[in-house]
């Protein structure tokens, strides 16, 4: 099934954006798509992830962190068992120049119920991913990450 994808280029470094992405305790302060994330923060660990898509009340999913590091975060969650519905979300960063960083977001549904969920959540998912891009731009380029920890 075709994933939702966004791509944006920021005037910042990978290290600065990675501070935001990898410190899950900061999510309530800056992340509009995932305003709460609890769990061990380790690959293979189960996490409780609150998802807030525009126009939809926030909901909680159980997600496994599949990959973390080298500018990559990748989550997987299954609903009703993997054959019926699974969801993956990834954020990847690529250095494209001095103080220039490309951020690629991808969200994909798979399984028998995937077409229904993709159709029902399409607009909200696209808007939510764009809001996340804007927040990454705001905090990754100009925000003071250290002050968020105060």
From TrEMBL:
Pfam annotation, one family: Polyketide_cyc2
Domain of life, source organism: Bacteria
InterPro entries listed in its UniProt record: Polyketide_cyclase/dehydratase (IPR019587), START-like_dom_sf (IPR023393)
Protein name per Swiss-Prot or TrEMBL: SRPBCC domain-containing protein
Species the sequence originates in: Geomonas anaerohicana
């Amino acid at each position: 099934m075709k994933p939702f994808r966004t791509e944006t280029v920021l005037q910042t470094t990978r290290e600065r954006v990675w501070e935001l992405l990898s410190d899950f305790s900061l999510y309530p302060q800056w992340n509009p798509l995932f305003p709460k994330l609890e769990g061990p923060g380790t690959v293979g660990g189960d996490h409780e992830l609150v998802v807030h898509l525009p126009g939809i009340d926030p909901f909680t999913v159980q997600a496994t962190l599949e990959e973390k590091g080298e500018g990559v975060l990748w989550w997987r969650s299954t609903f009703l068992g993997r054959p019926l519905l699974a969801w993956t979300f990834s954020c990847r960063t690529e250095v494209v120049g001095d103080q220039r960083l490309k951020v690629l977001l991808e969200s994909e549904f798979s399984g028998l119920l995937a077409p229904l969920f993709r159709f029902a959540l399409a607009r909200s998912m696209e808007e939510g991913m764009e809001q996340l891009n804007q927040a990454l731009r705001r905090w990754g380029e100009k925000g003071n990450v250290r002050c968020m920890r105060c």
